[in-house]
Amino acid sequence: MENDKGQLVELYVPRKCSATNRIIKADDHASVQINIAKVDADGRAIPGEYITYALSGSVRARGESDDSLNRLAQNDGLLKNVWSYSPEVTTIDYHDMLTINRIILAPGILSIIITSHLFYTSLICSNKLSSIYQAKSNEVDLKYNNIQRRKFVFEFENHLKLSSNTFDNNVHRLKSDNDFIPNYQKENATLLMLVRNQELEGALDSMRSLEDRFNRKYHYDWVFLNDVPFTEEFIEATTFMASGITKYGLIPSAHWNCPTWINQTEYEINLAKMEHDGVLYGGSKSYRNMCRFNSGFFFRQSILGEYDYYFRVEPHVNYFCDFPYDPFKIMRQKHLKYGFVIGIYEYENTIETLWDAIEEYIELDQHLSPSEQHIDMSSNAYKFITDKTKIGAYKPIIDSHSDYNLCHFWSNFEIGDLNFFRSDKYLKFFNHLDQKGGFYYERWGDAPIHSIAVSLLLNKDEIIHFDEIAYAHAPFNTCPISDSGLLYQRCRCQNPNDNIAITPHSCLMRWWKNGSGKYFMKEDNYMEE
């Protein structure tokens, strides 16, 4: 079409291809709705002031002249229930495109909206079409590259993974049968949930999601922990929901309640102040008990004594994709100690003195003999929790007042080695922090405690980001980015644009830089850091 400046612009009509991917050519039948909007003296659309026409007939061959407005005016198929005018729309639904050539844009007309009757998608045609076309070209090019890369990878018998620790086509793990075979030898592991009786509905929702996406094939045990006895209703409902054996543990009061050595007067004063200041869970005593328990006591429960690995599950969470592997098997085979899916920044007002205690612990460890030291700065992930440099376009979104950058693994999803948490080095680390009283005088969370511990005490190669596992816990979610992952894992991701992993609020980019690394495979299995 020609705009009011006499520039020639092409119009495209969304139209879905047939099952045979037939290319739409001249003389194909098209049926479209065209809305012509009127504008005021400033060139802005007048709400409700537009004329709607129906155009139905053969597609004109490219280059043929057509007095389109006259042709439209002669059409008697005037449509009702017209679409609302939206001047801000700049995107196109992905369909193959059908060209209608040389529709004249008369003076005083701001834009033309073309809508497919069959699929009710719309496109605003204006002077911005060139930028829209460029974006569309980039989208098609990216889709083509993804298809070619997928085809390239599938041709390898060993299902080569092109990249590690990133969102890409991890097709070596996406075979239809995954790693499951009849008589599969399970790992010595359990699914673990700390839950209250009144959270039964949320627990069942989480169980149903994880069973459907993972455990229905493997039948791992479920262990439930509570500081009060579970009700018969809870036990019955969760037993029927689980595909594996269910076990129920009562937490000893000494492992759950506030210790007697905490100064209750100081505790109550700080509790009231944090609640007044609006600190998240600042006034909650039970939340503090939970954080301390998850930091230093969950692994001491006798009901977990027989297991080597745990998968932490919370009520009201969701898993969007089929698991492409058994994560417990990955943990054992690769000698991993800790796995996560989301990394974000902590609220500094909950841990104001935590880093002081951490620095004190590091200094104490450095004064020990080499055989007694537990921290190896040459191989651990200390830089992950202290790096504040700009990465690409992003600096940390929160400017902390200590060397700690506030990055932590979101521990409501974690897969861990119980023997690491039972080890002397972790117990020594936890006991040093616990005696500071920060779980109660402040509101230290188990997420930064676990994250700092594994970053200091483990080799960074013993920590894994499970990028293929899709997970949601309000208010965040994460989902695979690759086309192949979404397809082969049968993903049903909610709000994929809200994927926390690829936003400035995520610490994942700092893990890629300072954690176990990010490398790409090249020819002849050559790896470059």
Question: How would you characterize this protein structure?
Answer:
It is a single-pass type II membrane protein. It is found in: Membrane. The chain is an alpha+beta fold and 529 residues long. The chain folds into 2 domains: 119 residues, no CATH class; 265 residues, Spore Coat Polysaccharide Biosynthesis Protein SpsA, Chain A, CATH 3.90.550.10. 29% of the residues lie in helices and 17% in strands. It contains 15 helices and 19 strands. The longest helix is centred in the N-terminal third of the chain and has 26 residues.
Give a short summary of the structure.
The protein has 529 residues and is of the alpha+beta class. 29% of the residues lie in helices and 17% in strands. The longest helix is centred in the first third of the chain and has 26 residues, at 129-154.
Give short descriptive properties of this protein.
2 domains; Spore Coat Polysaccharide Biosynthesis Protein SpsA, Chain A; 7-stranded mixed beta sheet; about 525 residues; single chain; 15 helices; about 30% helix; Glyco_trans_15; disordered N terminus
Structural domain tally:
2
> What is the CATH fold-level name of the largest domain?
Spore Coat Polysaccharide Biosynthesis Protein SpsA, Chain A
C-alpha-based Rg, rounded: 30 Å
β-strand amount: 15-25%
CATH homologous superfamily descriptor of the largest domain: Spore Coat Polysaccharide Biosynthesis Protein SpsA, Chain A
